Amino acid sequence: MDESTRRELRFLKGYAIASTIVLGSLSIMAFNRAAQTAKFTEINVERINVVEPDGKLRLVISNRTRSIGPIYKEKPFGYPGGTRPGLIFFNDEGTENGGLTFNGRRGADGKYQSSVGMSFDQFDQDQVVVLQYVDNNGQRRSGLTVGDRAETNIYDIVMARDSIMKMTDTVRRTAALRELMGPKNGVPMYAERVYVGRDRSKSAIVNLSDPQGRPRLRMMVDSLGTPSLEFLDERGAVTARLPQR
Protein backbone atom coordinates (compact mmCIF):
# COMPACT_ATOMS: atom_id res chain seq x y z
CA MET A 1 0.00 0.00 0.00
CA ASP A 2 1.55 3.26 -1.11
CA GLU A 3 1.64 6.51 0.90
CA SER A 4 -1.14 8.12 -1.13
CA THR A 5 -3.55 5.28 -0.38
CA ARG A 6 -2.69 5.38 3.31
CA ARG A 7 -3.42 9.14 3.39
CA GLU A 8 -6.78 8.58 1.76
CA LEU A 9 -7.68 5.85 4.28
CA ARG A 10 -6.68 8.06 7.18
CA PHE A 11 -8.81 10.88 5.76
CA LEU A 12 -11.82 8.59 5.30
CA LYS A 13 -11.40 7.21 8.82
CA GLY A 14 -11.21 10.71 10.29
CA TYR A 15 -14.19 11.80 8.22
CA ALA A 16 -16.24 8.82 9.46
CA ILE A 17 -15.37 9.55 13.09
CA ALA A 18 -16.17 13.26 12.75
CA SER A 19 -19.46 12.51 10.99
CA THR A 20 -20.44 10.08 13.72
CA ILE A 21 -19.69 12.65 16.41
CA VAL A 22 -21.64 15.40 14.61
CA LEU A 23 -24.64 13.18 13.89
CA GLY A 24 -24.61 11.89 17.46
CA SER A 25 -24.50 15.43 18.85
CA LEU A 26 -27.35 16.52 16.60
CA SER A 27 -29.39 13.50 17.67
CA ILE A 28 -28.82 14.30 21.36
CA MET A 29 -29.72 17.94 20.82
CA ALA A 30 -32.88 16.96 18.95
CA PHE A 31 -33.82 14.49 21.71
CA ASN A 32 -33.26 17.09 24.44
CA ARG A 33 -35.28 19.64 22.52
CA ALA A 34 -38.10 17.16 22.05
CA ALA A 35 -37.96 16.26 25.76
CA GLN A 36 -38.30 19.95 26.72
CA THR A 37 -41.01 20.91 24.26
CA ALA A 38 -43.68 18.58 22.94
CA LYS A 39 -46.88 19.19 21.03
CA PHE A 40 -49.92 16.95 21.29
CA THR A 41 -53.22 17.04 19.47
CA GLU A 42 -54.92 15.14 22.28
CA ILE A 43 -53.78 13.53 25.52
CA ASN A 44 -55.54 11.37 28.12
CA VAL A 45 -54.05 11.63 31.59
CA GLU A 46 -55.15 10.95 35.17
CA ARG A 47 -52.87 13.48 36.82
CA ILE A 48 -50.36 16.20 35.91
CA ASN A 49 -47.91 17.68 38.43
CA VAL A 50 -46.44 21.08 37.57
CA VAL A 51 -43.26 21.53 39.62
CA GLU A 52 -40.42 24.00 40.11
CA PRO A 53 -36.83 22.95 39.19
CA ASP A 54 -36.31 21.93 42.84
CA GLY A 55 -39.36 19.65 42.75
CA LYS A 56 -41.79 21.84 44.71
CA LEU A 57 -45.38 21.49 43.55
CA ARG A 58 -47.01 24.55 41.93
CA LEU A 59 -50.11 22.96 40.38
CA VAL A 60 -51.77 19.55 40.37
CA ILE A 61 -54.42 18.67 37.77
CA SER A 62 -56.10 15.36 38.47
CA ASN A 63 -59.15 13.16 38.42
CA ARG A 64 -60.85 12.18 41.68
CA THR A 65 -58.94 8.97 42.36
CA ARG A 66 -55.50 10.52 41.93
CA SER A 67 -56.35 13.89 43.50
CA ILE A 68 -53.99 15.21 46.17
CA GLY A 69 -54.78 15.86 49.82
CA PRO A 70 -53.76 19.03 51.72
CA ILE A 71 -50.03 19.85 51.66
CA TYR A 72 -48.15 22.19 54.02
CA LYS A 73 -44.54 23.00 53.09
CA GLU A 74 -44.38 19.81 51.01
CA LYS A 75 -45.78 17.67 53.86
CA PRO A 76 -49.20 15.94 53.59
CA PHE A 77 -51.56 16.60 56.50
CA GLY A 78 -55.23 16.66 57.41
CA TYR A 79 -56.78 14.00 55.21
CA PRO A 80 -55.68 11.75 52.32
CA GLY A 81 -56.23 12.47 48.66
CA GLY A 82 -58.85 10.91 46.43
CA THR A 83 -61.71 13.35 47.01
CA ARG A 84 -60.96 16.53 45.01
CA PRO A 85 -60.98 16.29 41.21
CA GLY A 86 -59.79 19.52 39.63
CA LEU A 87 -56.83 21.86 40.04
CA ILE A 88 -54.95 22.57 43.28
CA PHE A 89 -52.53 25.52 43.55
CA PHE A 90 -49.37 25.74 45.68
CA ASN A 91 -47.32 28.74 46.80
CA ASP A 92 -43.54 29.25 46.69
CA GLU A 93 -43.10 27.14 49.85
CA GLY A 94 -44.96 24.14 48.51
CA THR A 95 -48.08 24.86 50.58
CA GLU A 96 -51.57 24.58 49.13
CA ASN A 97 -53.08 28.02 48.58
CA GLY A 98 -56.27 27.48 46.61
CA GLY A 99 -57.81 25.55 43.79
CA LEU A 100 -60.69 24.73 41.49
CA THR A 101 -62.72 21.62 42.29
CA PHE A 102 -65.95 20.22 40.88
CA ASN A 103 -68.32 17.27 41.04
CA GLY A 104 -71.87 16.31 40.19
CA ARG A 105 -73.89 13.12 40.00
CA ARG A 106 -77.42 11.78 40.02
CA GLY A 107 -78.21 9.05 42.51
CA ALA A 108 -80.23 5.87 42.09
CA ASP A 109 -83.25 7.75 43.47
CA GLY A 110 -83.05 10.23 40.58
CA LYS A 111 -81.94 13.13 42.77
CA TYR A 112 -78.72 14.96 41.99
CA GLN A 113 -76.00 16.89 43.76
CA SER A 114 -73.55 19.20 42.05
CA SER A 115 -70.93 21.75 43.02
CA VAL A 116 -68.14 23.82 41.49
CA GLY A 117 -65.85 26.04 43.53
CA MET A 118 -62.75 28.15 43.08
CA SER A 119 -61.04 29.21 46.29
CA PHE A 120 -58.02 31.25 47.36
CA ASP A 121 -56.36 30.65 50.73
CA GLN A 122 -54.98 33.03 53.29
CA PHE A 123 -51.22 32.50 53.78
CA ASP A 124 -50.64 29.46 56.03
CA GLN A 125 -54.41 29.20 56.46
CA ASP A 126 -57.58 28.11 54.67
CA GLN A 127 -59.79 29.72 52.04
CA VAL A 128 -60.82 33.37 52.38
CA VAL A 129 -62.12 34.08 48.86
CA VAL A 130 -64.55 31.55 47.35
CA LEU A 131 -66.55 31.58 44.13
CA GLN A 132 -68.97 28.68 44.44
CA TYR A 133 -72.05 26.97 43.05
CA VAL A 134 -73.75 24.32 45.21
CA ASP A 135 -76.89 22.50 44.09
CA ASN A 136 -78.80 19.89 46.08
CA ASN A 137 -81.43 18.67 43.62
CA GLY A 138 -82.65 22.18 42.80
CA GLN A 139 -81.92 23.78 46.17
CA ARG A 140 -79.06 25.88 44.89
CA ARG A 141 -76.79 28.62 46.14
CA SER A 142 -74.23 30.43 44.03
CA GLY A 143 -72.06 33.42 44.75
CA LEU A 144 -68.87 35.03 45.95
CA THR A 145 -67.79 34.89 49.60
CA VAL A 146 -65.00 36.91 51.20
CA GLY A 147 -63.93 36.07 54.73
CA ASP A 148 -61.43 36.81 57.50
CA ARG A 149 -59.39 34.20 59.34
CA ALA A 150 -57.41 34.43 62.55
CA GLU A 151 -53.61 34.65 62.23
CA THR A 152 -53.17 31.01 63.19
CA ASN A 153 -51.17 28.39 61.32
CA ILE A 154 -53.46 25.81 59.72
CA TYR A 155 -50.90 23.03 60.12
CA ASP A 156 -50.61 23.64 63.88
CA ILE A 157 -54.40 23.75 64.20
CA VAL A 158 -54.88 20.46 62.36
CA MET A 159 -52.13 18.75 64.34
CA ALA A 160 -53.74 19.94 67.60
CA ARG A 161 -57.17 18.81 66.40
CA ASP A 162 -55.88 15.34 65.50
CA SER A 163 -54.32 15.03 68.94
CA ILE A 164 -57.56 16.09 70.64
CA MET A 165 -59.58 13.58 68.61
CA LYS A 166 -57.57 10.78 70.24
CA MET A 167 -59.04 11.67 73.67
CA THR A 168 -61.33 8.96 75.02
CA ASP A 169 -63.15 11.29 77.42
CA THR A 170 -65.84 12.75 75.15
CA VAL A 171 -66.63 15.67 77.49
CA ARG A 172 -62.99 16.78 77.64
CA ARG A 173 -62.63 16.22 73.91
CA THR A 174 -65.62 18.41 73.10
CA ALA A 175 -64.38 21.17 75.40
CA ALA A 176 -60.87 21.02 73.95
CA LEU A 177 -62.20 21.23 70.38
CA ARG A 178 -64.41 24.18 71.31
CA GLU A 179 -61.43 26.00 72.80
CA LEU A 180 -59.19 25.16 69.84
CA MET A 181 -61.68 26.41 67.26
CA GLY A 182 -62.82 29.38 69.34
CA PRO A 183 -61.73 33.02 68.90
CA LYS A 184 -58.05 33.87 69.25
CA ASN A 185 -57.51 37.20 71.05
CA GLY A 186 -61.13 38.07 70.29
CA VAL A 187 -60.78 37.22 66.58
CA PRO A 188 -62.93 34.35 65.26
CA MET A 189 -61.17 31.49 63.53
CA TYR A 190 -63.33 32.41 60.54
CA ALA A 191 -65.77 35.23 59.88
CA GLU A 192 -67.70 35.73 56.65
CA ARG A 193 -67.45 39.42 55.78
CA VAL A 194 -69.02 39.65 52.31
CA TYR A 195 -71.48 37.50 50.40
CA VAL A 196 -72.76 38.41 46.95
CA GLY A 197 -74.96 35.90 45.19
CA ARG A 198 -78.19 34.01 44.87
CA ASP A 199 -79.42 32.10 47.93
CA ARG A 200 -81.61 29.00 48.23
CA SER A 201 -84.77 31.13 48.49
CA LYS A 202 -84.04 32.44 44.96
CA SER A 203 -83.18 35.90 46.28
CA ALA A 204 -80.35 38.00 44.90
CA ILE A 205 -78.52 39.19 47.99
CA VAL A 206 -75.56 41.21 49.25
CA ASN A 207 -74.57 40.66 52.89
CA LEU A 208 -71.95 42.82 54.61
CA SER A 209 -70.86 41.58 58.04
CA ASP A 210 -68.77 42.87 60.94
CA PRO A 211 -65.39 41.36 62.00
CA GLN A 212 -67.25 38.80 64.11
CA GLY A 213 -69.12 37.55 61.04
CA ARG A 214 -72.48 39.07 62.08
CA PRO A 215 -74.54 40.49 59.15
CA ARG A 216 -75.00 44.23 59.61
CA LEU A 217 -76.20 45.37 56.20
CA ARG A 218 -78.34 43.35 53.78
CA MET A 219 -79.39 44.41 50.30
CA MET A 220 -81.82 42.04 48.60
CA VAL A 221 -84.19 41.47 45.73
CA ASP A 222 -86.40 38.51 46.64
CA SER A 223 -87.83 35.77 44.41
CA LEU A 224 -90.88 37.96 43.64
CA GLY A 225 -88.71 40.89 42.55
CA THR A 226 -89.22 43.00 45.69
CA PRO A 227 -86.13 45.06 46.66
CA SER A 228 -85.12 45.91 50.22
CA LEU A 229 -82.26 47.33 52.27
CA GLU A 230 -81.88 46.32 55.92
CA PHE A 231 -79.60 47.48 58.74
CA LEU A 232 -79.06 44.98 61.57
CA ASP A 233 -77.65 45.17 65.07
CA GLU A 234 -75.15 42.80 66.69
CA ARG A 235 -77.94 40.37 67.59
CA GLY A 236 -79.29 40.21 64.03
CA ALA A 237 -82.36 42.34 64.70
CA VAL A 238 -83.36 44.78 61.95
CA THR A 239 -82.94 48.37 63.18
CA ALA A 240 -83.89 50.10 59.93
CA ARG A 241 -85.38 49.09 56.63
CA LEU A 242 -85.99 50.58 53.23
CA PRO A 243 -88.67 50.72 52.07
CA GLN A 244 -90.33 50.89 55.48
CA ARG A 245 -93.02 48.31 56.10
Describe this structure in words.
The protein is α+β, with helices and mostly antiparallel strands. Among the domains are: 38 residues; 67 residues, no CATH class. The model has no long low-confidence stretch (mean pLDDT 90). The strands form 2 sheets. Strands 1-2-5-6-7-8-9-10-11-12-13-14 form a 12-stranded antiparallel β-sheet, with no helix packed on it. A two-stranded antiparallel ribbon has the order 3-4. The radius of gyration is 30 Å and the shape is globular. It is built from 3 helices and 14 strands. Helix 2 runs antiparallel to helix 3. Helix content is 23%, strand content 39%.
State the helix count.
3
Portion in helices: 10-25%
Give the overall pLDDT as a whole number: 90
| Shape type | globular
Give the ordered list of helices and strands.
Answer: HEEEEEEEEEHHEEEEE
Q: What strand line-up does the widest sheet have?
A: 1-2-5-6-7-8-9-10-11-12-13-14
Integer-rounded radius of gyration: 30 Å
How much of the polypeptide forms β-strand, as a percent range? 35-45%
What's the count of strands?
14
Main sheet? 12 strands, antiparallel
Q: Ends: how far apart?
A: 119 Å
Structural class of the secondary elements? alpha+beta
Uncertain segments: none
Brief write-up:
This protein has helices at residues 3-36, 154-164, 170-181; strands at 47-51, 57-62, 71-72, 75-76, 86-90, 96-106, 112-121, 127-136, 139-149, 190-198, 204-209, 215-221, 227-232, 238-242. It is an alpha+beta fold and 245 residues long.
